[in-house]
Amino acid sequence: MTDGARSATRPGRTPRETATHCPYCALQCGMLLREEAGRVTVLPRQFPTNRGGLCQKGWTAAELLDHPDRLTTPLVRDPASGELRPATWSTAMARIVSGLRAVQAGHGRDAVAVFGGGGLTNEKAYALGRFARVALGTRHIDYNGRFCMSSAAAAGLRAFGVDRGLPFPLADLGRADTLLLVGANPAETMPPLVRWLTEQRQRGGRLIVVDPRATATARQADLHLQPLPGTDLAVANALLHIALTEGWVDRAYVAERTDGFDAVRRTVAGWWPARAEQLSGVPVADLEATARALGTAERAIILTARGAEQHAKGVDTVTAFVNLALALGLPGRPGSGYGCLTGQGNGQGGREHGQKADQLPGYRRIDDPAARTHVAEVWGVPPDTLPGPGVPAYQLLDALGTPGGPRALLVFGSNPVVSAPRAARIERRLRDLDLLVVADLLLSETAALADVVLPAAQWAEEDGTMTNLEGRVLRRRALRPPPPGVRTDLAILADLTARLRPTPDPRRTDEPADGETADGETADPRRVFAELRRASAGGVADYAGITWERIDAADGVFWPCPTVDGPDSPRLFADRFPTPDGRARFHPVEHRPAAEEVSSDYPLHFTTGRVLAQYQSGTQTRRVAALRRAAPDAFVELHPDLAARLGVADGEPVRVVSRRGELRAPARLSPTIRPDTVFAPFHWGGPARANSVTNDAVDPISGMPEFKICAVRVEKA
Amino acid sequence: MTERVVIVGNGMAGARLASELLARGGDRKVTVLGAEPHRAYNRIMLSTLLAGKVDESDVELTEAAGQGVDLRTGATVTAIDRAGRRVRTDDGDQIDYDHLVLATGSRPVVPPLPGLDPAALPERVVPFRTLADCRRILTLAARARRALVLGGGLLGLEAARGLAARGLEVGVVHPVPHLMERQLDPTGAAMLAGTLAGLGVMTHLAVPATGLAADADGVRLDLADGRSLTADLLVLSCGVRPDTALAAAAGLAVRRGVVVDDRLRTSDRRISAIGDCAEHDGTSTGLVTPAWAQARVVAQVLSGADPLARYRPRPVVTRLKAAGIDLAAMGDPAPGGPGEELTFTDPARGTYARLRIHDERLTGAILLGDNPAVGTVIQLFDRGQPVPADRRSLLLGRALGTGVPAAAASPALMPDAATVCQCNTVSKGALVSCWRSGARTVDAVVAATRAGTGCGSCRDAVAGIVDWLREADSVEVTR
User: What GO molecular functions are on record for this protein (chain A) (predicted)?
Assistant: First the structure.
């Protein structure tokens, strides 16, 4: 029983209530916001993904609405003192426009870059892409989703012809006989999802988790495979090897619905289980048990997440699991398949509508002439004025301020000073810029470096849509308007667009409200969404048939949904794959070592991840009192045996040192991690910044950095 | 000038080298000459093929043919002209090389038995080495009821297990008192024999064969103890010998195998040898892992990717894994050596473990049966990493102490600070306070504390604590 339609915003009442979704992860739990006497509380809401559940992050999300740290006025860096000082919007905007103009006049249009985020609504992601390509005319736009979803996206595209995190509703997880989670820790990253895992096991299903750490999720599993970091691909190839030798490959499915199996068959013939065992440390018997559980199940689902994906071979690793799923005939079979657990709130929608360097709205390729023509028409510009593809996020950040690289950067919804790999280097790059503009609700570590900081509205102050990990398009609904002095990202973009016109319209106002600027630029999310629908029409991620009213009436709408009257698409691949010939593609993939292997100087593997009470770079969650109490500081997790050899006691400060930098944090001893591996969460900046240590090697296809493995040594601090 | 690399042999080592060279790019011309008529295949999977689980196509390996590599199958090299830097094949071709790599593999040993002529093996007597051998065995097995395997080493036992899986009655004859004597101790070997017996493989140990009689209807193997065993076929698995004929005829230094240095170069610096045919530092291994490591070194040197690459042999792990058998053996675990010894024996379940630790490192191990730590043990041995302080984890499983924490027997015993709900950081103490301040049902406690509202898995624990509080209160009232 859900209540999406019935509890739409009821403005004008006291208390005021709004049915919306959590601002954080891709599960997008349904929640109800209530404002009474100026105080906003979070109430549970039945929604098909979370079924009334919320984790501590969701319960406390409203705390930031009236937080004292909140930015309520633009800040402009004072040239004399070098400090950020409060300024009016017109001063701030004028500074931005003159800065952008100067950079582009001196260094060309591509000298300005835009960096977005996977937490932005579809409308904002779309508007940001259009702003970069049309208003700025730069090819340089990318976003932090590159650090999140890009490897699974690339693997999905090349295998299935489409990238949708889950090609089936979340509820299918509860009915799977076998569920394999690879590098996923939903018990900490999206706790309400675990309700489906519980249901799955209560129905007698088997849960198998692949993770180098015995995480909260792995501890619930029937079987936990604990491979050496960076060896998931070999594990997948060995699983397929076993499936072949045991006769569990669905030969009819392979023949009818796929291409390229023979090359994969020959590759995995070289991955007999004992070879994978020696490399990964996963016992042959466990590999066999896993292959059997998948190969003999009526309904089996394989899911990957960042643990498998954030590697310089992330695309190939995901491909190895996709190959396994295809060989077993899972994708498109009811209740079965392959999926990826998306991370950020709008990680899915954020990658569909044009903030990716090589894409236009509707998941279209920017180098496809037909796509350019279609989108240019919607945008009212000649197709040949659209720039070509830019470069992936890390490459973009690493070029900032360098000869030939961008000299100005606008950041929306991202904090790369904490979240980028090899972060100290990226911090230097940002400092080398002529102009750095950051729109955020709080003074993030990145905003603190900016020349201009723009105070942005929060999730409860704006309308729009989000697309969750299932490809379900949801409504984010405003409870109340932004506080005075704060604007929505759409309003900021509309204003900047108007100001950047060669001949500014004399009717332009300096302080536009949400709505329309005097010269026709819209900041109205409903109108932006209408344009997005037209721009995406006919694309892979076709939103043409999705309206806000339809979302309200049906607990969300699954894309593709090409017509208003036609059906949406909760389940993909039943009859065909969206490839030119309708068949899925196998790709042979081989294990290769990590970009940086351990050595005598750096003898330990370092891996990163999340903790339950914090989110992403922590800009928001570190400021919520209850979350700060639950997870006050960073830590370095290490095995007691390793700690004993290092002479380190629990709680004692340690340094984790790589070739790129170091982090300092207290040791946390745990027998749940391999003794050859150390872990740190990535939510903190400053001396405890995990990304000071991480490697900036990237996947050659997706541009995904290798966050999940590098070589370090650990010392007493 | 394009460098011409000629590889003699398209087996596990030769095919691997061709792939490694291809992966490193460059404009060299690579020619692979394989004596066998078919494409490269995985020799390790032949016992699976024998067991009838896979087809021939399933044992094919990725090969570099058609991607700039000239692969000629069914081409036997008959001579090396070192001065002219060319090789000759049996069909009269001459192929020039700048660098030649010998990957000629090994040949099965045919034991000196009366009635057994190595040059003309009887139809029902087959070695177990190549795909062609495998086909012959399969043809014979299709109409056979009983099979004998001569030789109780790794390969012989894999063949025996494969044939047993096809439903044949299988006997293994081994001249020494225990199976796999190079890898196993007597206890482990005895338990392995027991495991095999349970799978339909009988072992005849400590008894050399003394003679063989074979005709169109069957084979008879005479044993030193006076017994004679009969069967429909006999598989020979008495070890292999490096195939050095070509190298020896060309005047290269040959001992047991073709002698190579750390760069895998023979006594002629333009000729390398890898895999079973090579002898490095007095050892020719006959295993795929070192062969592939050697292929990698040669590829690194020849491609210029790492001219200083050197082959460093790593300790060998022997793994016998067939349905119903799980055996790993490595190093020297024999009793009486230096250091600590860990053993575990569970005869009822056929589980046996013997580990030897010296200076905090594993120096040898035998693991037979269900040993959950086998992956960890192999990695610790292979990488020379220090062993865990709690040695039990090497015997009883990697997850020792990391399992789901058992729920406290009674909420009364839980410390107040214990976290009941991880998702919302709710302690037992917080639940108790909530009760004390008036919440009297599970729903009321949940609504007030949010315990159980995340993943939901602590819901039972919360209900248990509420029940306990209710009982405790009612007891107080009764008093």
Answer: 4 iron, 4 sulfur cluster binding; metal ion binding; molybdopterin cofactor binding; NADH dehydrogenase activity
